[in-house]
Predict the 3D structure of the following.
Amino acid sequence: MGTSVQQALEQLKLTGVRMTPQRHAILTYLMDSLTHPTADEIYKSLSPNFPSMSVATIYNNLRLFVEAGLVRELTYGDDSSRFDADLTDHYHAICKSCGTIVDFDYPPLTEVERVASRETGFVVEGHRMEIYGLCEKCNKTSIQ
Ligand code: ZN
Ligand code: MN
């Protein structure tokens, strides 16, 4: 994982965002988790420690982190957004049954971008690539 919580906090300070205990907790949770949580999942996990915090608060703070370039928003399918604090180049495998998102490493598909640019005349800025299927857990359940 590229950035530490401390580095992230410094970066936030530069963008003029005031750090609060809630923001600190949300950011730490995201950076410690590999599960690409939704705002709802973060809420369920943090609300015992922050009874006054709402899902809306969490969502607004996530937006703020995305705008500050600390967190990536993943909008796959119609489900609610998931959030990823790992900003390094990596791809995702998405379970069509439970929605789990798992990281995997693969060299960035720069050749595809080159070909697309050559054949279309586009100035290519990026691409999306996701793998869809059943995660190990759901696959086991479906076999039984
Ligand atoms: Zn699954
Ligand atoms: Mn990821």
